[in-house]
Design a protein that fits this description.
- The structure is a single chain.
- By secondary structure, the protein is of the alpha/beta class.
- The protein has 10 helices and 15 strands.
- It folds into 2 domains: 157 residues, Alpha-Beta Complex (Quinone Oxidoreductase, Chain A, domain 1), CATH 3.90.180.10; 129 residues, NAD(P)-binding Rossmann-like Domain (Rossmann fold).
- Helices cover 27% and strands 27% of the residues.
Length: 319
């Protein structure tokens, strides 16, 4: 572990887009916090689909030019604060999803970001679990609460319900008083029931579009053919929120004809959302499932596992 006085740090970098093998551990200059920013000593960094999509083709990191570092989910401790920062102090344990979709360089020993891109780490939660939360939980929160306005009595369909975003969305919808239907393979149904899912559909044996009806909100992390089939489950006036970017095959005309609001939502840094999520964690209404933990140097292994798309919950790097 580097002493605070060290001018360098270890981080994962890549010189070119490509497979997991392009990720390598390097020494780099330790960043300094600018005005309104904090320097955070990273204890753990969550790994997300946005990370491997960016690594492979620069997808999300707006303005990232090689060499660059992927990663947005951070749990750590404030090391220093920049000019004008009043909301955080050195020594504060924080978590957050800084700068998204611009590069945050989270696969590193230190990150800098605007102070309000972080919030106090949920009480009683370790760094590994806290690092697994921000991007996935904020995605679920902003989709269900801010975009779709989920409220008591709503019927909510969550696709890929055992995935990183999905398993948190199930719990957030439940905490909002919704009746939650999830799609997942049968092996994951018991876990999802324990998280509060009311109905479960095994997508391998059952076509949800034939059996699920009268839904108010669909959260779709899959996209493609799922979009059109999801429309058939929604009542008029319902909302389809895709967290996959819309492509030419998005059924916009069909959605309009069905009287359904449908579109893509990109998550954004959200101090208040992080505080709401922390409150749910502290109240025992939200828990994050961590599937695998890797040391920072094994970021490539973490990406290989994540890209298979078969994990339950989240993958985290310890720094």
């Amino acid at each position: 572990m580097h002493q605070n006085s060290s001018p360098t740090m270890r981080m994962i970098s890549q010189d070119t887009a490509g497979g997991p093998e392009v990720l390598r551990l390097v020494e780099a200059a330790r960043p300094e916090p600018g005005r309104g920013e904090v320097l955070v000593r990273v204890h753990a960094a969550g790994a997300n689909p946005a990370d491997w999509k960016t690594r492979a083709r620069g997808a999300f990191a707006t303005g990232a030019t090689p060499p660059f570092t992927v990663g947005w989910d951070v749990s750590g401790v404030v090391e220093a604060v920049g000019y004008g920062v009043t909301v955080l102090r050195p020594g504060d344990a924080v978590y957050g999803m800084p700068r998204f979709p611009h590069p945050a360089n989270a696969y590193a020993e230190y990150v800098t970001a605007p102070a309000r891109h972080f919030a106090p780490r949920p009480a009683g939660l370790g760094h590994v679990e806290a690092a697994a939360l921000p991007l996935a939980a904020l995605t679920a929160w902003q989709a269900l609460v801010d975009t779709a306005g989920v409220r008591p009595g709503h019927r909510v369909l969550v696709h890929a319900a055992a995935g990183g975003v999905g398993h948190l969305a199930v719990q957030i919808a439940k905490a909002r008083g919704a009746h939650v239907i999830g799609t997942a393979s049968a092996a994951k149904h018991d876990l999802l029931r324990s998280l509060g899912a009311d109905e479960l559909v095994d997508y391998r044996t059952t076509d949800f579009a034939e059996t699920v009806r009268d839904v108010d909100v669909v959260l779709d992390p899959i996209g493609g053919p799922t979009w059109a089939r999801s429309l058939r489950t929604l009542r008029a006036g319902g909302t389809l929120v895709s967290i996959e970017p819309l492509t030419d095959d998005f059924p916009a005309a069909e959605a309009a004809a069905a009287g359904v609001r449908a579109g893509f939502m990109l998550v954004e840094p959200d101090h208040q959302g992080l505080r709401e999520i922390a409150r749910l964690v502290e109240d025992g209404r939200l828990r994050v499932i961590v599937d695998h933990v890797f040391p920072l140097a094994e970021a490539a292994q973490a990406h290989r596992l994540g890209e298979r798309g078969r994990t339950t919950g989240k993958i985290v790097l310890t720094v």
